[in-house]
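1st attempt posting a full record on here, be nice pls
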Amino acid sequence: MNNKLLTTTLFVSIAACSLTANANDTKTVNPEADRQAMIKHMMDMHGGNKINGKPIALDDFGMGALIFSDDAYQQWKSVEEFPPYVEHIDEGEKLWNKPFANGKTYSTCAGLDGDVKKIKAKYPYFDDARGEVIILDQAINECRVANGEKPYAYAGKDKALSNLLTYLANESRGNKIDVKISSPGALEAYKMGEMVFHTRRGQLNQSCAGCHVTSAGRKIRSEIISPMLGHVTHFPVYRASKGNIVTLQQRYQGCMRSVRAMPFPSNSKELKALEFYEAYMSNGLTLNGPTYRK
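the predicted structure (as tokens):
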């Protein structure tokens, strides 16, 4: 454990992490340098892995832990021929097209309008007018409220929202992640997400980075730890162990519970910042969700 934490600390320093910087000193924060350092670290550590006999490319990190086990990858390919999440896509499509009581649909809301195949790729983003990160889960609920409907519960607590996210993810397959940091507010959100990712917490005194940077590719019991690059590409995920769809926010909270920490509330600024940070770090990778995992 100590060696892992030491390695994480060293990596954070190399990546020019802003945790020790003055919160108001934006000159010391360079998100693109952080991203390039993370890519180099991941490729140096795992670039020799092979899938189907071919060395992995950067975009393969969107496969998550599958890049560490060709056997698991082959099993995944077999399951994906008849994926168990198809019914969730179908249910999500029905909800998407079902009119609200006022006769309008989700596609009439700003941010959810336009080509449905590009909607998920818009999120997360920093809204300068509102001074906050907006995630797709939130945009769906805000659209509902604006049309006189009740919002769904977040983080997997409402199957309808999970199904909508699954449908929109499927429609957006093939788009590239392109999160922009073009204002002081967006930079602060990035810094908050970075801090959440690198801060140790819980009774196990562990951070997200301790698992998904330092220990990516290793096993916790029978589960291979996924790399942080590509985390956001494939959610929502159908988890066979749960027999249901797991959203990204739900996964974040589950990870925090696993280190015996109190998770941040659903749709909190901390969890939204974490998604913003991870999405930025995965810029250029291909959206490939929903998908299947054990």
